Queue: 3 jobs
Job 1
Amino acid sequence: MIDSTACIEPGAAIGRDVSIGPYCVIGAHTVIGDECKLMAHVHIAGHTTIGPRTAIYPYASLGTPPQSTKYRGGPTRLIVGADCDIREGVTMNTGTEEDRGVTTIGDRCMLMVGAHVAHDCIVGSDVTFANNVVLGGHVAVGDNAVFGGQAAVRQHVRIGEGAMITGLSGVRADVIPFGLVEGERARLVGVNVIGMLRRGWNKAEVHRLREAYAKLFFGEGTFRERIEAVANSYAGDNLVTKVVDFIRSGSRPLTMAVYRPQLKIQE
């Protein structure tokens, strides 16, 4: 299922039952997993691995060299997981020598039209990028995060598991797991309740997380004191522990809350 106009360089490895459409270009040292589907005019540069059953739509360009003045031309890589949906015009760059040397996308991710993943990013599984979302270099994104259209994330920022970044948000600092941020200069405005309920967390668990959130960002004492108080009060709570551990492990600024949450969870 390889169109006669496609160009596949020597050294590329193509899995079984792969479909490659018209005018696609596949570089050397590329690995295409079983049952992948590449539409017309897809460009995959060398040193790129695409997981099985991933669909790539026209004019996507994957595995091109990083847009970094520090890149020295080394054989850095891009790895895309299984069952991803990569829509028209998406771009992803390989890593740089100054970091891990690899850009990584997890399984079952959906990247809509015009999204961009820069060098050395680590994107988890089940992540959704709406149209024209852009990640700067060295960004880390947890599983199940969702980005609204035209959101932009500054380099080196961490986006926690299950976070929701609303459209047109400019994210300059780390976002806690399950956080909800919005705004041109993004601020934390609550917990991603709808997303959590959709993914199977029950209302009691979500309510406890929102209680902890209120104490963490609006309680008495310094922020450092509130972190320790919440960690002690909610010891053993899986969701709260994820948030506390994320904050403790960070070395860069944190996106802070601006609204006190209402603790009633809507049906």
Job 2
Amino acid sequence: MKDWIFKRTTVAASMVCVLVGSTAEAQRPAPGELDALKKMMQEVLSQNEDLRRRVRELEEAVKRGQAPTGSATGVVGEAPKDPATPLAAEVPTEPVKTARDKIQLGGAIQVEAGTRRDFSRVTSSDLALSAAEFDFEADVVDWAKAELSLQWDSSTNNIVLNEALVTFAKPTLVPVYLRTGQGIVPFGTSIGTTVAARFEESLTITGPLTTEIFEAKEDFVLLGFRKYGFNAGAYLYNGTTDNRKRGKHLDHYGATVSYGMKTDLLSFDVGVDWNGSVFDTDGLTTAFPELQKRPRVSAGQGRSYTPGISTHGRLGMFGFSLLAEYDGAMNRVHFTRNRRDVSTMPEAWQVEFGYMTKIFGIRPYAAINYSATAGMLGAFPQRRLLGSVGSFLTDNIRLALEYANEKDYPRIQSGTGRDSDAWILQLTYEW
């Protein structure tokens, strides 16, 4: 292409010279005509230099794999362009994505080796596959996204549904979004049950007692608002607690509000969550089966659902991180267990301090987490202390070592009064 353009320009220049020469032989030009011919020759040479520059720019753009810029237009022999049409609209900067291209695949595999001594003084050790999951994410249209997570269940050796969510959002137009499906409702610091979500919540291998007790996976629909760092929403979910004799009704709901900010040096997030039936959380459902089916209370006192509240704060600065959380029931409940009257008000809180840095392309870290409970009647440990060190060898491979110490409730509160220890070495590969 370059040779063809130069040849055409040379021929044009030669024709001008021939015409000038023939005219000079026929008659001697006047001084004004000679100046005009010189000016014409200078314009031709200038156009030739401009053409060389534009061709070089075009070649460099092709080598870099970029679309030609506006300075590469106007090449001799090129079809004229419509000046009203931008070049970016004529030449796409990237291939048009099909529906298949907009489906992302991911997942994770975790292998653990550890030794444990439980509250019964029994010591054990094992090497096991602790997690295997496959994740899908589809954004076929720019105003909706679907997320699906399948997980291997070690107890049944089957593949089960972990999470399935659809989110409708167009933040460039409106700050309102709608999310529905099966997943973790916003209560506490837990944001999901996938391996990637666990990495976002905590640096430790074992989760804190707050998450273990007050995390709630439900079928829900949430209407939310997100703008300028504020995030608020109200949700309706299909809970398991029921106080009606004529069948189950969709009358469980909750709300959340938070504010967060993230820069290159500082990040923080604070929030408050409320749940109309705290005994719908996974841990409390298992610990207190007596509170799943309860009749209405006396007239004028409403339903017997017990609300719960959660507050949390998270701070990150210069590689250091600090997390604090409190979850608990808002009312004390009374029920009968083994023909005995029981009164309880479940609570849990945690504090985690961590540090992460980057050395020689890897990201080592260390973290200490302390969590405790009250009113759990021996269903969960009274406190848990975790110390973890590890490193992200790459962005998707993590190797971590953790020591865990737990203290059980005293015998008078349905516990053993003993403590337990565990050492865990975990390898995670995420893609």
Job 3
Amino acid sequence: MPVKDAVRRLGLLDEMVCAGIADGLALRTPDDVPFDGRELSLDGRPVLNFGSCGYLGLEFDPRLQAGVCEAVRRYGTQFASSRIYMQAPMYAELEHRLGEMFGGHVLVAPTTTLGHVAALPVLVGPQDAVIMDQQVHQSVQMAVDHLRCQGTVIKMIRHSDISQLEAALAQLAGYERIWYLADGVYSMYADIAPLGQLAALLQREDRLHLYIDDSHGVGWAGRHGRGPTLDRLGSHERVVVAASLCKSFAAGGAAVVFPDAELKRRVRAVGGPMIFSGPVQPPMLGAALASARIHLSPELHDLQRALRERIELCTQLLAQHGIALASNDGTPICFVPVGRPELAREVARRLLDDGFFTNAATYPAVPVRQAGVRFMLTLHHRPSDIQHLVAALSRHLPQVLGTG
């Protein structure tokens, strides 16, 4: 990126963040009172929290809390060693259980971002090419910068445009391996990648490999909560999936799911952050193990069904009020398009005045003039909470749009 463009981008980002702070929507810290997942206290006033990605509500599950405490008692607050030398004992069991859950060979990373940075420079060689969806998560785009440094050819295509993907593959005829980088569930507009079309393309095009970040699909979707991507493509030998162990999973760290043991071994041995970054510490390993046991149990089906009921209720209510979503793919993320960023902030500010904390989704998470209000549904929410939020949206949205 040219220096002038980089400076302009940072300036615009700073402007957006400062505007969010001024409206009380960004860089907030709730009051120091106990949380219950449903409500937060802001400036001494309770508000319903629709800003959490803890879709299954497991962060307050007593089994995860007990897992944290037991891990600390056994192994301390930290295991202060790089994994290249020694890892905490819980790693082996966690990766085994995650392998059962995800149906592949799992490597646990400290964060999803560091998982991308560890995996992609090992998976993608300088003689390979990369095609990147324009809305793939910023953490993946950061890892792609490492590929540029080694000389890898990078192309970007329009969001989920299979015809443009096919055209890019044709343009890259001289490359034996081409990686397509995308999200499974997109964190802003909440649409799911065109997995059926990608499966068909994998069958037709032997050079194509997929690297999918499905962090927002884990837990609430798929068998054992493996997410929509692994549910649809998990048996394919040319598919690698990264998944957060935060969000639905309610722990810490990330899982990178490989189709074979050798790929996992290579990334484990030479992936930069696997050598130089700190590990997932015992408290979060304990929480992750407890969460994995829940995901592998019949109980998960009931949790997923309860969340689907909330998603269906919200979708019906929005339709009744004539409020359109950016996507109707049935995820727990709801994005209401507004347009200009100041209008999105105004809607979110009015909702906050009414006692609902939502996200004003603006640049750089979305294009500058495609801002909106984003809110997430979790098992902490009661049906009446969703009804009241949609009613408030139906009041404020036409008023704000009428002024803009």
